[in-house]
TrEMBL record:
Superkingdom to which the source organism belongs: Bacteria
Keywords recorded for this protein, A-Z: Activator, Coiled coil, DNA-binding, Transcription, Transcription regulation
Protein name: MerR family transcriptional regulator
Organism: Streptomyces acidicola
Domain HTH merR-type: 1-71
Length: 264
């Protein structure tokens, strides 16, 4: 029995345009034509369309589906297992993202409500990139320190934020002064500034041991969005993020392996 393109589209829940596209792509060409030239699909065509739609639902590309259906040697089971693994990973990622959204909602509900002017007065040029914040939440989702930092941030009132940002601005000025004066990144002044930043994080957000501080500094050096949280783009200098990262690593090493002469 043969079916017109309109009938097949209705059966399968797809558009006629989709069937035309499949025909042009060579993945599903009708096995017949009417005497007037219209496409006619047989039972084998419908079975193939069912397979195509099944793989499409699983997220396979048309090229991947074509390879699976046209190659008798193709290992469809292995393709399905691979896709199952990918889907499982995506499900896990989406579940964690949903948890991030839930925590963000909690922060919004319990945090300080600021007007745009108040937000600028408090944070100035420091901006919070939502894409980075979301990635950071996913990256540190299993960290007790991240959970504590979020909870404490949500508990800060407007004056807390003003004091926090004032401290950060003063520290940032000292960092820029040291950098512009060509003070070495692993020198005493730079390490002291790194230690000041570590204590700032501990004071306002969460306990920040040297290993954690190293990871934070690595993010500063690797991701401009992270570094913009401590130094706005208008104040940044080429090499400044790497300079701070070097200072943090040097300070962490100093704290992990203190100079015995310092205790004399």
């Amino acid at each position: 029995m043969s079916y017109s393109v309109g009938q097949v589209a209705a059966f399968a829940g797809v558009t006629v345009r989709t069937l035309h596209h499949y025909d042009r792509a060579g993945i599903l060409s009708p096995s017949g034509r009417s005497h007037t030239g219209y496409r006619l699909y047989g039972d084998a065509d419908l079975a193939r369309l069912q397979q195509i739609l099944f793989y499409r639902e699983l997220g396979f590309s048309l090229d991947e589906i074509t390879a699976i259906l046209n190659d008798p040697q193709a290992n469809a089971l292995e393709h399905l297992r691979s896709r199952q693994r990918e889907l499982s990973e995506e499900i896990t990622r989406l579940q964690r993202l949903a948890e991030v959204a839930e925590r963000a909602i909690e922060v919004q509900q319990t945090g300080v409500s600021l007007t745009p002017q108040e937000r600028f007065d408090v944070f100035g040029e420091i901006t919070f990139d939502l894409s980075y914040a979301t990635e950071a939440q996913l990256k540190w989702a299993d960290s007790a320190g991240q959970r504590e930092a979020m909870a404490r941030a949500a508990a800060h009132n407007k004056e807390d934020w003003r004091q926090l940002m004032a401290e950060a601005a003063a520290w940032r000025g000292d960092l820029l002064t040291a950098f512009d004066a060509d003070e070495p990144g692993d020198g005493e002044r730079a390490m002291d500034l790194a230690e000041e930043h570590r204590r700032h994080v501990t004071r306002w957000f969460t306990s920040c041991p040297p290993d954690m501080h190293r990871r934070i500094a690595d993010d500063f050096a690797a991701d401009p969005r992270a570094f913009a949280l401590v130094v706005p783009p208008s104040q940044q200098r080429p090499g400044l993020a790497a300079y701070l990262c070097k200072a943090v690593h040097a300070n962490a090493a100093r704290r992990t392996h203190p100079d015995p002469l310092e205790d004399r």
